[in-house]
Specification:
With 275 residues, the chain is α/β, with parallel strands linked by helices. It has two domains: 177 residues, 4-Layer Sandwich (Metallo-beta-lactamase, Chain A), CATH 3.60.15; 68 residues, no CATH class. The relative contact order is 0.11.
């Protein structure tokens, strides 16, 4: 098994890792660099990116953030993609709203810790906590070697238990670990990283103190943050209103259990869940 890191080793985002075994290849992510524009950034020199190549078996999208899938729309339409089912639905839901939305025609869905065989590769997805919904790390096995690609992950979201599970039950016998680091530490101890659950109380206090309309600006695809704002709004006994795009994205996740409660009144018998 041979590995080539085309992008991501000297920058945050824009990740693209090519893996070859027995003359066949897969690619982990095809991201747009954070400071780039999709039509100006050159594609990595991977056979199969500009025109079909039978040796390129699949492109794996670890999660639906542009720095991990942003150049996918420039690949041949016949390209086979692997990604989470909810991630796929989110990208499909977002496509009509984006100037250059990506249509994925051939997709196989990833499931947590359920192996998939692609040619000589055995791929095992590991669901992780991240601001992007339905994010995965990927264990790649071929030729008696094991590579683990962490994707992007964190421990302070509502799915933080996935981080603890990964620490407790990690893939064993790893030969190579590929890991992207955005924030590896803080210089001052007082700069604590608040969990999403802790932010609920802080946001609720701010909302209660505000005499008028409270506006919140965040990514409509950051489901954890939307849930935090929703919980804080309910705790402050205020009305929660979201824009059409965010509502469309939330509905696409299917697993977003709070979606139906948005339609319920804040006061009275139909108040519904407080948290």
């Amino acid at each position: 098994m041979r590995v080539c890191i085309h992008r991501g080793s000297h920058e945050i985002g824009g990740t693209c890792v090519e893996i070859e075994s027995q003359g066949k290849r897969i690619v982990l992510d095809i991201g747009l660099p954070l400071d780039g524009e999709s039509d100006r950034v050159p594609l990595p020199p991977v056979p199969g990116f500009k025109k079909p190549d039978e040796s390129l078996l699949a492109v794996i999208i670890s999660h639906p953030h542009q720095d991990h899938y942003g150049l996918a729309g420039r690949l041949p339409q016949a390209t086979q993609f692997l990604m989470g089912a909810a991630a796929h639905r989110i990208l499909e839901a977002a496509r009509p709203f984006l100037r250059k939305g990506v249509e994925f025609r051939h997709v196989t869905h990833l499931e947590n810790r359920r192996p998939i065989t692609v040619g000589p590769f055995r791929l095992t997805p590991y669901l992780v906590d991240h601001s992007a919904y339905d994010s995965y790390g990927i264990l790649v096995e071929a030729d008696g070697r094991r590579l683990f690609y962490s994707g992007d992950f964190r421990a302070h979201g509502y799915k933080g238990r996935l981080f603890e599970s990964l620490l407790k039950y990690p893939p064993r016998g790893i030969d190579v670990l590929l890991m992207e680091g955005t924030t590896l530490g803080r210089n001052r101890p007082e700069e604590n990283c608040h969990t999403e659950a802790q932010l609920v109380d802080k946001m609720a206090a701010l909302i209660r103190a505000a005499p008028g309309l409270v506006l919140m600006c965040c990514s409509g695809q950051n489901i954890d943050r939307i849930v935090t704002v929703f919980k804080a709004t309910r705790r402050a006994r205020r009305q929660f209103i979201m824009d059409g795009y965010t509502a469309h994205i939330c509905r696409a996740t299917s697993a977003f259990i709070l979606y139906e409660t948005f339609l319920q009144p804040v006061h009275g018998k139909g108040e519904g869940r407080r948290d």
